[in-house]
């Protein structure tokens, strides 16, 4: 087996390959007035001390602006320098803010503040009650009244494995077999494609409003939506070009996700994945890294063929986010490892970013501009859903067993990682903090950490409450979309995420 240092070099060398492909592709395909940009950061043209929030609304003839004082932290890009970041932009490129600075990352009692989008929505819809305000996502009887999410998109996902296998076919048999492994034999729950399909159906029930010319909106915020001659409705959605592109986005998202799993398993020297051998154990590290590279390359080509450069910019950022999360995991300073917000930002980069970027991209492919209320609600749902999913995953790492999870239990601690349950226990027991800061490297550290965790009467409950908080926020964002069967199925899917046992 290659040593871990070489494995990491192989991993990080693979991501720029995909990003380079996207840059080359988008430079040759000017689908919209937006120039390609591969980074998502704060809008340098706006004051950092006071942001102005704008939106498109059916009842308004112009953008409504609400001044809300909000100071954004000055965080340097993780992958590139600030200077390099600035050089990559022009006046028309998308200057985007990380989702964890747009939406509420912590509950109010832990220092979190209400998201900009909720404040704006409440202002524009004064007196309107969110339809899911009192929904109990852990009430099995109540959730049974909502549409079953996987059943609702069963027909759409039935040919998914076959079509995605065809899309990643290669003339090299070993490469082709390795790349197809998770699509044919161990395809998992298809969680991300299900979200994309349901969100596409939910967006089809919305009304696309024309972009508004407002001095409070940057040009890129008022654009980005795909244009089609025939309006899409729930009745004609499935047979439309809009649906075809949204379905292809679901395949792209799964390719990127699977590529990250293959690369992560090489990095972590994992033995199993989804209840079977990891790809690098079946073949070799070299084949696994190349298979991941190949999936990213294919995803990049298919992404360009969606013919929307705004979506290319957003989804390219998902690739950058995966690298950012891996770097955070490897290189975060010891003192930051005990902070719950550092853990959540890393979880955003590694898990939630791909989901929330895909959800906003679905809205853009459905015709909505970037700054629309619908597109923002879609991203906010994906952000909270992704964090709820990861936090629940981390809880199961302590409470589940390997035969149910499909991967070894306590895998995070074996990698030196501290997740929500351990971090909440450390708030009670200061003795845990040195163990966390040295990544459980000393003999007996992991056992001692577990003893403190299970000695705590509230740590696990606080972790579960954090997952529930993000699930509730995800459903709250869905309440800003018009009523539809798909929207309600997403509510039930959110419930599944925080009540699952594997």
Automatic annotation (TrEMBL):
Cellular component, GO, one term? transferase complex
Q: Which UniProt keywords apply?
A: Isoprene biosynthesis, Magnesium, Metal-binding, Transferase
Question: Among its keywords, does the record have Magnesium?
Answer: yes
Record-level Gene Ontology MF annotations:
metal ion binding; prenyltransferase activity
InterPro entries documented for this protein: Isoprenoid_synthase_dom_sf, Polyprenyl_synt, Polyprenyl_synt_CS
User: Coiled-coil ranges per the record?
Assistant: none
Q: Which Gene3D superfamilies match?
A: Farnesyl Diphosphate Synthase (1.10.600.10)
Q: Which GO terms describe its biological process?
A: isoprenoid biosynthetic process; ubiquinone biosynthetic process
List the CDD domains.
Trans_IPPS_HT
- Cofactor(s) of this protein: Mg(2+)
Q: Which SUPFAM superfamilies match?
A: Terpenoid synthases
- Family, similarity comment: Belongs to the FPP/GGPP synthase family.
Under which name does UniProt file this protein? Uncharacterized protein
């Amino acid at each position: 087996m290659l040593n871990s240092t070489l494995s990491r070099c192989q991993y990080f060398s693979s991501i720029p390959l995909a990003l380079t492909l996207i840059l080359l592709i988008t430079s040759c395909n000017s689908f919209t007035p937006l120039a390609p940009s591969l980074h998502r950061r704060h809008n340098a043209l706006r004051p950092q001390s006071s942001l102005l929030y704008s939106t498109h609304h059916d009842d308004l003839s112009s953008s409504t602006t609400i001044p809300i004082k909000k100071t954004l932290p000055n965080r340097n890009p993780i992958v590139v320098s600030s200077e390099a970041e600035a050089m990559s932009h022009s006046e028309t490129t998308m200057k985007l803010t990380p989702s964890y600075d747009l939406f509420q990352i912590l509950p109010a009692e832990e220092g979190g503040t209400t998201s900009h989008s909720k404040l704006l929505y409440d202002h524009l819809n004064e007196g309107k009650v969110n339809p899911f305000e009192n929904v109990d996502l852990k009430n099995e009887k109540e959730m049974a009244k909502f549409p079953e999410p996987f059943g609702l998109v069963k027909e759409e996902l039935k040919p998914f494995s076959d079509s995605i296998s065809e899309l990643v076919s290669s003339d090299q048999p070993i490469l082709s077999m390795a790349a197809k492994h998770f699509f044919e034999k161990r395809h998992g729950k298809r969680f991300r494609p299900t979200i994309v399909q349901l969100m596409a159906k939910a967006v089809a029930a919305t009304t696309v409003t024309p972009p508004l010319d407002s001095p409070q909106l940057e040009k890129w915020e008022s654009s980005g939506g795909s244009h089609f001659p025939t309006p899409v409705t729930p009745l004609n959605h499935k047979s439309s070009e809009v649906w075809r592109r949204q379905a292809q986005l679901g395949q792209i998202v799964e390719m990127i996700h699977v590529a990250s799993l293959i690369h992560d398993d090489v990095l972590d020297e994992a033995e199993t994945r989804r209840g079977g051998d990891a790809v690098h154990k079946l073949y070799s590290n070299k084949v696994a890294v190349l298979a991941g590279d190949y999936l990213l390359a294919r995803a990049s080509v298919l992404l360009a063929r969606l013919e929307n450069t705004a979506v290319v910019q957003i989804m390219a950022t998902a690739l950058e986010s995966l690298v950012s999360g891996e770097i955070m995991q490897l290189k975060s300073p010891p003192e930051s490892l005990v902070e719950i917000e550092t853990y959540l930002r890393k979880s955003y980069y590694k898990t939630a970013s791909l989901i929330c970027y895909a959800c906003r991209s679905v809205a853009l492919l459905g015709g909505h501009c970037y700054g629309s209320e619908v597109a923002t609600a879609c991203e906010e749902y994906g952000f909270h859903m992704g964090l709820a999913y990861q936090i629940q995953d981390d809880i199961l790492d302590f409470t589940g067993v390997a035969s149910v999870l499909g991967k070894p239990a306590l895998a995070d601690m074996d990698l030196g990682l501290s997740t929500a349950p351990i971090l909440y226990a450390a708030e009670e027991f200061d003795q845990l903090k040195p163990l966390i800061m040295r990544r459980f490297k000393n003999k007996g550290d992991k056992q001692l950490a577990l003893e403190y965790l299970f000695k705590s009467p509230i740590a696990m409950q606080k972790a579960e409450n954090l997952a529930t908080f993000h699930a509730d926020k995800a459903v709250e964002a869905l309440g800003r979309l018009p009523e539809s069967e798909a929207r309600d199925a997403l509510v039930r899917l959110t419930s599944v995420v925080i009540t699952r046992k594997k």
